[in-house]
Structures are given as C-alpha cells and as structure tokens.
Amino acid sequence: MTERIVAVFDHCFSSPAGLNTRLVGGHAEPYYRPASENGAHWHQVEFTRDYPASALHETAHWCVAGAERRELPDYGYWYAPDGRSAAQQVEFEVVEVKPQALEWIFARASGLKFRVSADNLDAGLGPSDAFKRNIWRQVQRYCREGVNPRAYRFALALASAFAQPDPLLAEHYRLEELG
Fold it and tell me: Which UniProt keywords apply (predicted)?
C-alpha cells in the first residue's frame, strides 16, 4: 500500500517539471527537506516509517504549502510535540484543518479509512468536535470549490491507481464518519 502511494506521488512530482519533489518513508518523525537543506537535487517529503496515513498526511502538508514555504525546512512552521497545552492544542487544530481535509480526500482516493489526528496523545486531548466539524466543512468546500493543482493531480492519480471513484464528490464525506 505505502509503496504504491509513494510511486504515485513520485510519478506526479519527482521530475523537474513536476516540482522536483520525492516522498520518502522510513523516518522516525515526519519532516520536509527542501533541496537546499538535503544536499540533493530534489525536495523531500519524509513520512513516519511505512505508515500510509503518515505518507498521505505529509503529502497534504506539502500540497497546502505555497512556493515560498516549500523552500524552507519543514515549511517554516512551528511544531509543538506531544504534550501540548490546551491552548496549544487549539492552535494546532486551527492550522491542521486544511491538511487533514486533504488527507481525508487522499485517503478516500486510496481506499483507506481516514482518522482525525489530534497528535497529542500524552496530554490525553483527542480531536474536538469542532475540529472534526471544521475538517468536514473544509472537505465540503474543497469538493465544491476545488483544490489546488497539486492536490487535484495527486487525488486523481491515487484514485486511478487504487481503482476508486472520484474523491472530490462531496457525497463521499459524512461528518458521522469522523466519530
């Protein structure tokens, strides 16, 4: 499964014309390395071990990041590890709505179940109902208004590779699925 996700991403984006970016698993932590940081001729989206959800989530972050952010290590974003305070968790949920909405679309395109990630297990804070609702609303907006060209290309390529229906149809997504 993960190897196919990587192959689809690399087919879409690894060439110089395709943004010269590769998806690479096997890492202890996810990270984005622009070519200027990794000493290679390509940018690298790194995901945790061989987890398909991590590959899709990190790809979603890459799709959300604009051209300037894709020149910065880890897109120049802050990240507070597990054990965030309630206030930090609220901020996390605000910045994670769009990536997690895209991840849901990519998961659907791959035939996988999507799980909302609060990414804060040590603090015992799961995803709030508002967070889940905001992710669902963002997916509905993406289906109605469209996604950026990178996300569109990847979603359709995944759907083709995994023989799934069009992942950008709003009726495929129900708030109740998020638990």
Answer: Elongation factor, Protein biosynthesis
CA–CA gap between residue 74 and residue 57 (Å, rounded): 13
Judgement on whether residues 36 and 90 belong to the same structural domain of the protein: no
DSSP 48: E
Domain end position, chosen among 52, 76, 100: 76
Measured at the CA of 7, the angle between CA 3 and CA 13, to 5 degrees, comes to 140
Cross-strand bridge partners of residue 23: 45
Range of the domain at 167: 86-148+161-178
Blockwise average pLDDT, block size 10, the chain, 179 residues: 97 91 94 84 93 96 95 80 62 82 98 84 68 96 98 98 98 92
Q: Which of 143, 134, 65, 144 has its CA nearest to residue 105?
A: 143
Give the chain's domain count.
2
In the block, which residue shows the tokens 């769009």?
A: 98
pTM (two decimals): 0.90
Report yes or no: 152 and 93 within 8 Å, Cβ to Cβ. Answer: no
